[in-house]
Amino acid sequence: MAGSSHATGNSARQAAPRPAQSGAPAYRRVLLKLSGEAIGGGSTPLDQKELSLIASQVKDAHDTGCQIAIVVGGGNFIRGAELARIGSIHQATADYMGMLATIINGMALKEALKSAGLDTRVMSAIEVKAVAEPFIRGRALRHLDKGRVVILVAGTGNPFCTTDTCAALRALELDCQVILKATKVDGVYSADPRKHPDATRYDRLTFMDAITRNLAVMDMTAFTMCQERNLPILVFDFRSPGSIRRVIMGERLGTLISNGEAAARPAPKAPAEKSA
């Protein structure tokens, strides 16, 4: 666990967006976490309507000038931990199968974003040269600085790690100011609001609140990483019209999970002009 400052070096991050000025986004670089179920999982693993919805939302948000990296899950195809529990497949193997599922989702999302007019790169934590670039931090940062959307697939490349943990890790590596956790509900509740209509929705939570109340928003490893490095998480309903753009512009939506009132972290420096 972190010490009382919850920050090391220059890694103190803002716990809440600063008001946008003159139409500028409140965040300059964000990491958007999408579950596999966000793009399918009903009658078909990949739902073209959901892909188109996400692509239009990301395009709308990207037009603000904010740099966007995306971590996508694979639960619409397979969940490694669940597969390992019910079958004879070792969890390490099941987790690698889950990584392959995220690659499929990343490829599908790339095509949807391309159709929406966004220059996009897929970067993988495991080697799949024919369909994705290897994840190299410096290269990912260059893509973001050039205005490209970067889709990060295959998790961390290691078994026993969730895509939530990957989201926390990549957000820290890429100096993102916040993790935007896109869900199908409008924030964090005390219980599943679809099963418990009287559940309470939280406007703000501390990481300690989320951990002690065992709120199933992200896994404990991801929470702890974000807590120690002072990286806030904003949980919101991505299907609400314009929600990703609205969050990036500083509008208060969903539930903010942070260390409370923390020192603001400067936005990443604007890149110098580079030739194509």
In short:
By secondary structure, this protein is of the alpha/beta class.
Task: Describe this protein's structure.
This protein is α/β, with parallel strands linked by helices and 276 residues long. It is built from eight helices and eleven strands. The protein has one domain (29-258): Carbamate kinase (3-Layer(aba) Sandwich), CATH 3.40.1160. 32% of the residues lie in helices and 16% in strands.
Low-confidence stretches: 1-12, 262-267
How many DSSP H or I helices?
Answer: 8
Overall morphology: globular
Largest sheet: 9 strands, mixed
For the record, the count of structural domains works out to: 1
- Work out the radius of gyration: 18 Å
Strand order of the largest sheet: 4-3-5-2-1-6-10-11-9
Tally of extended strands? 11
Q: What is the name of the CATH superfamily?
A: Acetylglutamate kinase-like
Estimated helix fraction: 25-40%
State the end-to-end CA separation: 43 Å
Structural class, judged by helices and strands?
Answer: alpha/beta
Element-level helix/strand string = EHEHHEEHEHEEEEHHEHE
Percent of residues in beta strands: 15-25%
* CATH C-level class: Alpha Beta
CATH architecture: 3-Layer(aba) Sandwich
